[in-house]
Amino acid sequence: MIYFQSLTQSELAELLLPLSRVRRPGDLTDEMIDDKCRRQARYRAKQLFHWVYQKHETDWDQMSDLSKDLREWLKTNVEICRLKEHTKQDSLDGTLKFLWNLGDSKTIESVIIPAALQEKDEVDSNQDETDAATSSITPSLYAGKRVEGGLQGAQWSRLTACISSQVGCAMACKFCLTGIQGLDRHLQTHEIVTQVHELRRIAPITNIVFMGMGEPLHNLDNVAKACQILLDQDGMSFSKRKITVSTSGLVPAIVELGKRVDVSLAISLNATTDEQRSHIMPVNKKWPIAELLKACREYPLGAHRRITFEYVMLKDFNDTLEDAARLVRLMRGIPSKINLIPFNEHSGAEFKRPTDDTVRKFQRYLLDRELTATVRISRGRDILAACGQLRSVFGTARGTERHRDWAPAPAASTTGSVTSLNLLN
What we know:
Layout: E1 2-3, H1 9-16, H2 30-54, H3 68-77, E2 78-79, E3 84-90, E4 96-101, E5 107-115, H4 117-124, E6 158-162, E7 166-168, H5 178-181, E8 183-186, H6 189-202, E9 207-210, H7 220-231, E10 243-247, H8 251-260, E11 264-268, H9 274-280, H10 289-298, E12 307-313, H11 321-330, E13 336-342, H12 356-368, E14 373-375
Parallel strand pairs: 1-2, 6-9, 9-10, 10-11, 11-12, 12-13, 13-14
Antiparallel strand pairs: 3-4, 4-5, 5-6, 7-8
């Protein structure tokens, strides 16, 4: 059985080609017959993309403009993948996170992250009001605000799907709980695409970020193919500007990604010296900052497009104005924008979150030197869905006792721990 979501439209057309036939071929040459069959197969593939991705139909029999013979063949040979929801959690700021069961009983997580223009304006104007999601969370200017009306309200300017690319992660970044789990396996193409497909049934997703569980470029083949499917204008029809692939810095894969698919690139930088970065990100020992930035300078960018550099701010580690000055120098010659992410603390972490005042001064230093610099609003902190706070409750676990403060969530529950995410967007 072939999963529908594992096929690009061209691959689906090739699969349907043997089923195509020309009625009354007459005096047509073999070449002409082959051409007509291929056009018919491409048309059928386009129809199927519309049915599955735009109309969200999962029953072949309901696809009324397909022939009965084709529908019967599809029922026997092609399966439309669905993910089984294990846990759903709702944040007071509108964030939703989902724990999905895979076919082999592994679990992954996806998150819907809403963004409101009004909230961004409040942060940009330095208004100090904040609505702490729970009494246990330190209030912050850069935290999501309490909202009413769910994801269908008119207040949202953007609804981002944060999706996973692996079960676990091999990168072992010290500021992220995902690294504690270790790598279990890569996700297949259909498992990546289906996350977006499921989330689009729930809300009108506008953006996709590959910033959930796993290092996307460690699973380049499946991630690149998934992007091709998500970009298909006859399918989910995302713009290349609306899909962002993030990486901790796998330099050869960055080069290859630019050759395979046209999407936005984000770099999880988080430090301005090799000594700093190697301490928190082991990948830097293999591909240091100079090599990483060289690949960024050579990455193919279209007009008016930039690479996003994500910078998790860790108190008394990388949050000084000296760090900001080095960051300015590193960005020279790269079309870039900086996304500052105040660290979201979690049990067992060796780092602390910097003060809002420190974050503001760091941002202002960058802005005054003509860099584009924004500060991430930490959404979902009340359900442990913010950047770097989450980890898997199933599968592998290489953590120590200081991280064993969770219990598996019950099935169909609306509370509890869920699979880890590196929410770097």
